[in-house]
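Re-running Phosphoprotein phosphatase to confirm reproducibility after the cluster update. Everything else is unchanged from the original entry.
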Amino acid sequence: MQKKSVLTLAKEKPKILKPSFSPRAPSATSKSGSSLSSRSKDPLKELSNLKPQEKPSKLSFPPAKLIRSVKENEVKDLIVSKCKIAKQNVDLSRQDLAVYATGKEGYLFDILETLQDKNFNLPQDPDVYSAIISLVAFHIFRTVTILPDLWNSVHDDYYFEMDTFSDPQWPHRVIIYDTAIALFKRSDFNIEKCKLLATDLFKLVVYLMRTPNKEEQRKLTELYVCMIPKLGEFRSFAINVTNSALARIAFSDENFIATKPLLQVMRSHAEGFHTPLKKVHQIFYLDVILPLHKHKHSHYFWQDLVSTVTAFLDKEPNLVFPTYEFIVNVWPRMCTTKQLDFIDEIGILASFVPDEETSKVTKILLPQYCRTIVGVNAWSSKRALALFDINDFVWLMTEVPGDVYPSLIPSLYECAKIHWDGDARNLALACLNVLRDNNRKIFNVVGKAMKMLENQRIVTDIKRAMKWKELIDNFETSKRNKLRKYEILSYIFDGCESLAPEVTKKKKNKKKADEK
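Result of re-run:
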């Protein structure tokens, strides 16, 4: 057996005997036959002797040099070692670990500032890229908390987001997101050194976009935008990942929170597509983007959806007619909020209608538009009438007056005459004036035809009322009941006001009051 030298013994760390808290462990101060061991233990004293949660003994953030202060041949090893040490998880909700949290922030800030330095030469080594990307993935990878669907309102402008909730790990996660953004923003970033890691990180970014934290969504969107140009040959792969994520939201029970950031990045993709659009992109627009209109929570991401639609139509105007056709087919019947969104969209899309497709678009749009005008929902009716303030929509309604005026003018006239909301009646009169000023000749022709039809309808009503009057005169003996039934006839049939003069006076007085 070899003897150890004094220097070796001095360098060795002394062995510290840790106390055992097992109930079977023998006492170091008492013998087996002592009277202390025979006494019964007091449970209250045992509870009072419980110590608070101890600090993890494995956490260690030793002082280290700054990455930019070491020699070039030491940079790689220092980056890798700092990334490994920074992977230690520190619970920021515990105040007793504040020292460790500060030490970890020092490591993270050193890595971040190094990557943000444009004059720093990043070692082009797979180990360096692997260390940094794995550090990012280690901190952001988690199962995202999905909020219950009942927390969001379908009919109201209310959606629950976690702006007010504090995430204990968010301060460190912000630094991590900035680190990833700084890495992919570098001009010397080389995708060849980290193909698999970069693509896996991209899929993780798309997955995490379902987080209800809006601030994290902004960071993820910024990271997505920075990664796309650097992926090179994997750019089509990245777009396919985004497309599949949107398709799951449109056709399955996937959480809709991720739709807003995904549509934002998809809009940027569409703006960069070549004109005319490829067949693949057109199919994606028709099969994925348009079905998002049917989502019950579409109001949450409506602005981003409309901006994405306009980005595609700007590249391919031939998609305008399928868009109008789809919107009319899925028009909401009960939800006022979605009706207002759809009305706003048809006004925005009017500026993208090609001249040769004006007749087709108006033919598919007019029936639904006229039903909305004369509907009992005053909000939808007034919003639809207010579209005449948009020049492009007025152009769409007056470009082919021979097809539009015969359908639109009767609906506007009915709204101006009998709608229960006074503002809707005034807006309908203003719309009629706009149509008359744009093409007075066709307006007068349609007006004469409407008068003829109105006269025929009144004559028919009078004939039907006279038959009822004859029955009342022959079979009703009470004079009071006769007058009451005449009054009912004057309300039901037009042109029969002479049967009940008092009702006629009431109508005239009401009309004068409305005019005042």
